[in-house]
Design a protein that fits this description.
Length: about 160
């Protein structure tokens, strides 16, 4: 990949920040000089709750800040509260691309459809494949919270089929 884009966006809940989240974020920083990170608010989670408890916004933001600092990326990041699936993507004319997981690719396509309706230029969409755990099943927060895997995707207990 050649020259980086000036501004890209990525969004998510980023609960129990794991290897998949980190891959998504690092890809965004590889593509863009500045990365707008939409972090799902507690209010938005209240409207569409996850199937598990979720850390509070401030706690998730602190963990995100710590990760960005550890990689010296904090100066290039802007974390904004995400109250809906679109964030500032429908008003921010400076954005050039979205970085999404395979799981949220449809949201990116919907964003572009809405941008075009408003006469805005569509965003380039970079889709990241889900990161698999050791058992070849994607890493996700639900699995981490259930105690199946750790944040790096290593199995924590053997799921023995006794049928």
């Amino acid at each position: 990949m050649g020259k980086r884009l000036s501004k890209v966006a990525v969004g998510g809940t980023f609960d129990k920040l794991h290897r998949g989240h980190k891959k998504l974020l690092l890809k965004a920083f590889k593509i863009g000089d500045t990365v707008v990170i939409g972090l799902t608010t507690d209010e938005m989670l209240g409207k569409a709750p996850k199937n598990h408890i979720t850390e509070q916004y401030e706690s998730r933001k602190q963990e995100l800040d710590a990760f960005l600092s550890s990689r010296e990326l904090d100066e290039r990041a802007t974390i904004i509260p995400l109250n809906d699936s679109y964030g500032t993507t429908l008003t921010n004319g400076g954005l050039q691309a979205l970085v999404v997981s395979k799981e949220t690719e449809n949201v990116a396509k919907e964003i572009n459809r809405r941008r075009e309706e408003k006469g805005m230029k569509p965003l380039a969409i970079y889709v990241i494949n889900m990161v698999n755990a050791d058992d070849s099943i994607p890493i996700n927060t639900t699995r981490i919270r259930r105690g199946e895997i750790d944040r790096d995707g290593h199995l924590l207990e053997s799921k023995v089929n006794t049928d």
